[in-house]
Amino acid sequence: VIFSMFGYGLPKTVEQILIKLQQQIVNKPYEIRLIGNMPSKLLNYRNVVGPLKPGQMSRKEMERMNAPVHYQLILYPEDSYELSVSGSIFEAISASKPIIHLCNPCINHYNSDHLPIGYCERDVDGITRRILDIIQNNSHHAQEYMQFHQNLQKLQKNYSPRATADRLVEIYSVTRLLSQ
Question: Are 30 and 3 within 8 A, CB to CB?
């Protein structure tokens, strides 16, 4: 199973998870890919890979590294992105990558109860337990994983440039009618 972190993603939180994973006996293969600008010291942990050169990555290199990923980790805490958004969620939606995330209003909006695209966890321990469960019991998650992909495809349609343009035209039309 391959997990990824896209972007900057709070290196201290990533390190907490990596330390917890190191403390476990994991007898199945897994990998955590750091896609973006992460501190190189994180590459010293077992099963962690990152860009060959530190610093900015090209879009093409990020997409290449992300292609085989199964789950994207989004680790922004609850008080993050209350009136803004992380690009990480759009990377996950665009690339059709189910997510494992810390509960936060921004990400919860896209990973809703009626259209789940991954797992929401309350804390770093929950994220670590979820990763370990997926690694050790991957075949038990196959049905849910496929459902996440189907839901991601629906979100892709909802947030496509065409759908967004149609919504803007509708808003403009309603606003125009109301102002008359």
Answer: yes
Separation of first and last alpha carbons in the chain:
57
Q: Which amino acid is at 26?
A: V
Give me the pLDDT at residue 98, please. Answer: 98
Residue 115's pLDDT is what? 96
b vs e for 66-101, b when ≥16 Cβ sit within 10 Å of the residue's Cβ? beebbbbbbbbeeebbeeeebebbebbbebebbbbb
Mutual angle of helices 124-136 and 11-22, in 10-degree steps: 50
Residue type, 91: E
Q: Which two tokens stand for residue 167?
A: 């919504």
- Which pLDDT belongs to residue 112? 94
Low-confidence residues in the chain, pLDDT < 50: none
pTM to 2 decimals?
0.86
CA 133 to CA 140: how far, in whole Å?
9
